[in-house]
Design brief:
The chain is α+β, with helices and mostly antiparallel strands. Helix content is 29%, strand content 19%. It has a domain of 57 residues. The protein contains two helices and four strands, in the order ααββββ.
């Protein structure tokens, strides 16, 4: 009986660890073939407007924001200051801020 319980516990733990080690889906950096474009622009529909990208950056503690440029995949890129140093930043279509 103890062997069955121990085997069940080990298998349950092993399957939990396998799920925990799956890596997250990366943010695409190139346009997807099925991406729709905002009419009159080259911006994909899943891109935030520049004003919202700037707001996300300021709310995350960035100052001295440069002009943000949108790349073909809809990412906003620029430079800003945080904690007294200049850094490169990216804001994706979901509003996630990535410092490089």
């Amino acid at each position: 009986m103890k062997t069955i319980f121990l085997t069940t516990a080990v298998l349950s733990l092993a399957s939990t660890l396998a799920f925990a080690q799956q890596s997250p889906t990366p943010v695409p950096t190139t346009p997807q073939p099925d991406q729709q474009i905002v009419p009159g622009t080259q911006r994909p529909l899943n891109t935030l407007p520049e004003s919202q990208a700037r707001e996300r950056l300021m709310n995350s503690g960035y100052t001295n924001l440069s002009t943000l440029t949108s790349d073909p995949s809809g990412l906003w890129r620029g430079t800003a200051t945080k904690d007294g140093r200049s850094v490169n930043i990216t804001v994706d279509g979901a509003g996630r801020v990535v410092q490089q």
